[in-house]
Structure formats: structure tokens, C-alpha cells
Amino acid sequence: MNDDAHWMARALALAQAAADAGEAPIGAVLVDGAGAVAAEAHNAPISLSDPTAHAEILVLREAAKRCRNYRLPPGLTLYVTLEPCAMCAGAISQARVTRVVYGASDPKGGAVESGGRYFEQPTCHWRPEVTGGVAAEESAKLLKDFFRARR
């Protein structure tokens, strides 16, 4: 199993934990250049009563707290099960994350390779390397099953 598949499997486990808690099943893991977990989280806007408590935001907050800097150290890769939205893409840019790997595309709310393509905007100050589609089917299935069960 390559590193991307390994870390996306961890993000998927976090996404399942979110689903089990009644949250949208999105998980994120931030990994440093040495292959150690810098932070991990899953969506929690309902349980935290916080509309900004997306998995990516929670991971970035925890990592920034640990390193005591709002700009994270170089070499970090963010693994997330769903294409980041505009809010999360903005936070990723502000934090200076080196690389973003995501699972399922989000044609409706995504802002990396869908929608507004945040990192391609001239006002974007930091552009991470992006790899999409890693464990896309598993990520999409988890989301579809979660929302189908709620209809």
C-alpha cells in the first residue's frame, strides 16, 4: 500500500467515526514529511455547534496549536475524504499546507478542482500541490450511504 492509500484509509476510518456520531462522514489527517501524524479529525459542526468545524479546519487548528504558529511547517500533506470547500481551501492556503490529497470530488461544494478553484485564483497567496481521486469510490460510497439513510 503506498503512502497516499495508507493515509487515506486512516481518513476514511475517521470519516466513519463522524458518520457513527451523526456527522457528515468526512475525515482528515495531516501528515508531516517524516510520515508522522501532525493532527487528525473528522467533521463535527453538529456536535460542536460550529459551522466551521469541518474536518480540515479542525486538523489545521490542532496542528497550529501544537506548533504554536498559524503557518504550519513545510512538508505537510493533508489527506481528506472529500474535496475541500472554499472555506477549507482558504484555510489550507493560509496555513501553507504543502500538499492536499482528497478522495471524492464535490461538484456542488468543492473549491479545489470543482466550482471556484480557489488555488487557481490570482488572490490565492499559497498554492499546494493537489492530488484528487485517492480512494474516491470508498469516500463517495460512505457519503452516499450516510445521506441515503437519512432520507
Keywords, separated by commas or semicolons:
single chain, 151 residues, alpha/beta, 5-stranded mixed beta sheet, 4 helices, 5 strands, 36% helix, globular
Blueprint of the fold:
Layout: H1 3-20, E1 27-31, E2 37-42, H2 55-67, E3 77-82, H3 86-95, E4 99-104, E5 129-131, H4 136-149
Parallel strand pairs: 3-4, 4-5
Antiparallel strand pairs: 1-2, 1-3
Description:
This protein is of the alpha/beta class and 151 residues long. It has helices at 3-20, 55-67, 86-95, 136-149; strands spanning 27-31, 37-42, 77-82, 99-104, 129-131. Strands 2-1-3-4-5 form a five-stranded mixed sheet. A hairpin with a 5-residue loop joins strand 1 and strand 2. Helix 1 (3-20) runs parallel beside helix 4 and helix 2 runs parallel beside helix 3. The radius of gyration is 14 Å and the shape is globular. It starts with a helix and ends with a helix.
